[in-house]
Amino acid sequence: MTPQFEEARRLLRLARRDQEVFGIIAMAGGNTHAAAGFHAQQAVEKVLKALLCASDLDFPRTHDLESLALRLAGSPYALPFSAEKLRPLTPYAVDFRYDDEVAALLTEREMRSIVAAVVDFASAKLGAP
């Protein structure tokens, strides 16, 4: 196993951790939408960076999910759906973290669907348990 592939699997493990935290926060209800969105965004970001590592592709330090997904185009790890689908999660990384009035760009159900699709895709591609 190459160092890039090992790093990819490590990032996938971290993404699953964020996915789990997202689930816990999303079920808590109350005023937790921004926190849930943050962990959903982080899970997807780490998966995309895992896939980029596995592809041996460079990526910048960014939270922009759409731009990360577009870097995968043409690789064996390209997502099976439009990178545009990830765009509404990006503001949860930074814009909404310190704002007490958050626009709900996605519902928790929509977030859960996106995170699950991306994590499941990467798990199948990277052969991770």
Short description:
This protein is mainly α. Helices cover 57% and strands 0% of the residues.
Describe the structure.
The longest helix has 26 residues, at 3-28. This protein has one domain (3-126): Four Helix Bundle (Hemerythrin (Met), subunit A). It has helices at residues 3-28, 33-54, 65-71, 108-126. With 129 residues, it is mainly alpha-helical. The two termini are 16 Å apart.
User: Percent of residues in beta strands?
Assistant: under 5%
The whole-number mean of residue pLDDT values reads: 92
Which topology does CATH recognise?
Four Helix Bundle (Hemerythrin (Met), subunit A)
Tell me the CATH superfamily: Nucleotidyltransferases  domain 2
**N-C termini distance:** 16 Å
Tell me the overall shape.
globular
Helical stretch count? 4
Q: What is the H/E order? A: HHHH
Q: What's the level 1 CATH class?
A: Mainly Alpha
Topology:
Elements: H1 3-28, H2 33-54, H3 65-71, H4 108-126
Protein traits:
4 helices, Four Helix Bundle (Hemerythrin (Met), subunit A), mainly alpha, 129 residues
